[in-house]
Amino acid sequence: MMSTSFALQHKKNRLYYALLAGAGLVVLLALYAVSLMEEEGHIITGMNNQIVWGMPHVFAIFLIVAASGVLNVASIGSVFGKAIYKARAPLAGLLSIAMLSGGLAVLMLDLGRPERFMLPALDFNITSVFAWNTVLYSGMFGLVIAYLWSMMEKRMNVYSKPLGVAVFAWRFVLTTGTGLIFAFLTAREAYGSAVLPPMFIVMSFAWGMAVFHIVQMVIYAWNDKELEPEILERKKRLLGIFVLGSLYMVVAYHMTNLYFAHRMGFERFILLDGGVYPALFWWGYVLIGNVLPLALIFLPGMKTRKSAMLASLAVVLGGFAFLYVFIIGGQAYPLNLFPGYQVSSTFGDGQIGSYTPSIYEILLGFGGLAIAFIITTVSVHVLNFMPHDKSYIAD
Amino acid sequence: MSDVQRRNFLKTSVGVAAVAIAPGLLLFKVAHGQSDDDSKVRWGMLIDTSNCAEGCNECVKACNKENGLSGGLAPTDSQWIRKIEIKDVSTGHQFALPMMCQHCAEPPCVDVCPTGASFKRYDGIVLVDKHRCIGCRYCMMACPYKARSFVHAPLHDQNPDVPRGKGTVESCTMCVHRVDEGKQPACAEACPNKSILFGNLHDPNSEIAKKIRAVASTQVRADLNLNTGVRYQGI
After folding, report:
1. Would you say residue A149 has pLDDT above 90?
2. What total number of domains does chain B contain?
3. What's the half-sphere exposure (Cβ side, CA atoms, 13 Å) at B172?
4. pTM value?
5. Which of A14, A162, A172, B39 has its CA at a distance of 20 to 30 angstroms from the CA of residue B100?
6. What is the pLDDT of residue A7?
7. Are residues B146 and B78 in the same domain?
């Protein structure tokens, strides 16, 4: 018996190092892609003067938005005092830091001049929401680290509640800032809407919760532990509510656009005849990202654990599909300089922009995921992030 | 140190830090918010579209030559000025005009730039400081005129008067290096029909100021209220 468990532990150890090595390799490949982009310029990516933000931004924004949303678990524990969430707050904080690191790394390494990444902090332009975001991101880092410290170090426990409240407030502002990046774009038909910041906030809840579910289930399986079905059921339902909430925001966003005659062309493009974008929107975001998880969560008779895992994976995939359509589709639709006129030029006026992501951008994106994976895996391995539940009592 | 003392110390520190930082931020805001309507010079252009011949590309060629641009037409090539062919779908009326940075008085590119690399000179010319641009491309997202290009590939044989940089954003400088020497921008000089009138919008006696008082001129996307320095006649 002893020897079997020892052998199993040995096997797990080897798997742990193999996984780390695999993720490390992905990071190395991403760095290689970045060095090529530095050497050759962005010409080796699929981005151009029309689609200026591409695949790296899809990955980066997903990670940053999910990093904020995952803290929901912590907030429900610290701010609203729910015990089962409190037990999971450290893991949520860790995931937030891991995803924020991955997302920011991608964002910075995609810059045309990544070596100047400190400039926004030094030459701060107060009217730029990008500059605000540098403060919001670094502040979030510091706050979540302090929050983790307050939860894991007994002497600091007294600060855990106020820090939890601070994190709760900060992440709202942070995701508002992410939404504002697009909301402030006055001339683009896809953006420039006040609904975007709240939409990003509700989406962050769903994406963060989905990532949390996936990681939690893997950790439990790894440690041969079983999550109490009542706890899982409650959290699964919460994910369902978040998914419904974000779907509502997306419907509101498109409905308002559809009501404005001048935005009909854009909506037609993104929802109907824009090729890859409507396909990704309906099949990727609506079907995989909403219908499938909602069915898995709310239809009676679904096996809890498996359906929770599948639903979470579907929400993450749907999130990526949504961001691809939102970011890249939104830029592919041409700017309307002369409303009511037909225009053409050598610079793509009046034409749909074309974009094919290159392997280098995709590698960079996966590099961000790998960074988040490494931070999470190593931390969970060396520190005590496993949720410890007392016997489940409904609060 | 007791908990109460520690708490008080923390409160005081935060307060002191806020008091120390706030005036700097406020001054910064005041400096940025200052109006330059009282500036004696605001360079601008009036473009007569009725004279702008379809198919003529002289302004574009002159710009490329002056600023050392390749003239390539790939989506990754820089185009600081381009000719847009326009057709009124309901009437069939067709015309063409050159489109470039409109040198807005309220430039969205300057607002969104995180480092202040995009900036507006006191004479209204909007430029990019190549040493401060980090290549985030947010200004390209924000520009309503698609006036900006990103340098996607290494550059060779640059014009020393017009420094450019791989990985940074660039756009029409209104030929600031020529204007500062008292010359016209290259496009205005090259136009065979003299359709591009360049001058000081704030000098009531300048030709451009007199003309915009006399004829009806339009700002492209005037609805955005950006107060462009480039105006069009005949749209």
Report:
1. yes
2. 2
3. 31
4. 0.91
5. B39
6. 86
7. yes
Contact with chain A for residue B72, Cβ under 8 A: no
Of B79, B112, B152, nearest to A41 by CB-CB distance is: B152
Q: For the beta carbon of residue A289, count every other beta carbon within 10 angstroms.
A: 28
> Which residues have CB under 8 Å from A111's CB, separation 6+?
A117, B134, B135, B136, B167
Is A185 at the interface with chain B, CB within 8 A? yes
Give the nearest partner residue to B28 out of A122, A126, A187, using CB atoms.
A126
Q: How many degrees, rounded to 5, is the angle at CA A250 between CA A111 and CA A134?
A: 30
Task: State yes or no: pLDDT of A381 exceeds 80.
Answer: yes
For A282-308, the pLDDT digits (tens) are: 999 999 999 999 999 999 877 778 899
Q: Which of residues 86-125 of B touch A (CB under 8 A)?
A: 86-90, 99, 108, 110-117
Cα(B201)–Cα(B212) distance, integer angstroms: 9
Cβ contacts of residue B56 below 8 Å, gap of 6+? B83, B96, B192, B193
- Which of B9, B60, B86, B168 is most worth mutating to test chain A (most A CB atoms within 10 A of its CB)? B86
Specify if A33 maps to a domain: no
Under DSSP, is residue A378 helix (H, G, I), strand (E, B) or coil? helix
Which tokens is A270 given?
A: 């993104």
Distance of CA A300 to the CA centre of its chain: 29
Query: Which of 204-243 (A) contact B at CB < 8 A?
Result: none
Look at residue A8 and tell me if it is in a domain.
no
- Sign of the CA dihedral A82, A88, A90, A92? negative
- Helix (H) or strand (E) holding B118, with range, is strand B118-120
B181/B134 same-domain check: yes
B18 & B67 share domain: no
A11 within some domain? no
C-beta of residue B153 within 8 angstroms of C-beta of residue A43: yes
Question: What 3-state DSSP class applies to A103?
Answer: helix
What is the number of domains present in chain A? 1
Q: How far apart are CA A249 and CA B41, in angstroms?
A: 47
In this prediction, residue B9 carries a pLDDT of 67
B57 and B16 share one domain: no
Residues B77 and B188 placed together within one structural domain of the fold: yes
Instruction: Please enumerate in sequence order all residues whose Cβ is within 8 A of that of B20, keeping only pairs 6 or more positions apart, or say none.
Output: none
Residues B97 and B201 in one domain: yes
- pLDDT above 90: residue B31: no
Residues B6 and B105 placed together within one structural domain of the fold: no
A114 DSSP assignment = G
User: Least CA distance to A327: which residue of chain B?
Assistant: B141
Boundaries of domain holding B70: 35-233
Tokens 């110390």 label which residue? B9
Confidence at B68, pLDDT banded by 50, 70, 90: very high
Which chain A residues are closer than 8 Å to B2 by Cβ?
Answer: none
In the numeric block, which tokens belong to residue A259?
A: 């009501």
Residue identified by tokens 């360079």 is B43
For residue A185, tell me if it sits in a domain. yes
